[in-house]
């Protein structure tokens, strides 16, 4: 199978959708910069095609580290034709709890700021070559807020608006900006969910659909497509009814609760700063 993309940069390559994307791109023959925080997972992927892959472990919210990664990769392989900002973390949120404000801050750093720091080093080079695709992995959760999930919904909703702005800025420059809104994927980020997950999708299928959509120049991709229609129908409900339905669902686990996923770089006031590695970061 001929490669659609020849040179790709992928954050959040360690697990879930990111790992599936990495395997698909490598399998298609692309050179891939694998960005994440789990070195063994990244090195396992790189071993699939060591002559075409490089491993990087910056904090995606660290501008200097991300610029250094980009400079090194472009020095090796040139300007990428595909950059996917996939790094993301999730967790429950309760505004009444002071510690959760740190969770909100870190989630915004990774999920929202991390996309901008991923794209920024490549935009001028893509403009110069007059082609490329910038892909931001948002979420259906960014379409409307959900009880107990305010931090994640805010970060993904902000990402959707950021991508809209970037798309307008780059229109006419042969650079495609794609917003990807997955519903529920079978990954570490959803493993602890205690509520119904309609349309649950396997990461491999999602990766193939995502790359096919980007290759077609689509600016909005929902995975799977039917979950987008369901979300749109729910959004037609009056606020009071919509909120009542969601309040009846179990909440996503907060940091420290059973089923919660680790958030790398999170420092809670009463704890020593941690560098726990998220499987999707």
What does this entry show, briefly?
This protein is an alpha/beta fold and 281 residues long. The chain has eight helices and seven strands. The protein has a seven-stranded parallel beta sheet with strand order 3-2-1-4-5-6-7, sandwiched between helices.
Structure description:
With 281 residues, the protein is of the alpha/beta class. The chain has one domain: NAD(P)-binding Rossmann-like Domain (Rossmann fold), CATH 3.40.50. Helices cover 42% and strands 13% of the residues. The chain is built from eight helices and seven strands. The chain has helices at 16-27, 39-46, 63-77, 100-129, 150-170, 203-215, 225-235, 239-247, and strands spanning 7-11, 31-35, 53-56, 82-85, 132-137, 175-182, 220-223. Strands 3-2-1-4-5-6-7 form a seven-stranded parallel beta sheet, sandwiched between helices. Helix 1 crosses helix 6, helix 3 (63-77) runs parallel beside helix 4 and helix 4 (100-129) runs parallel beside helix 5. The radius of gyration is 18 Å and the shape is globular. The protein starts with 6 loop residues before the first strand and ends in a 34-residue tail after the last helix. Mean pLDDT is 88; it is low at 271-281.
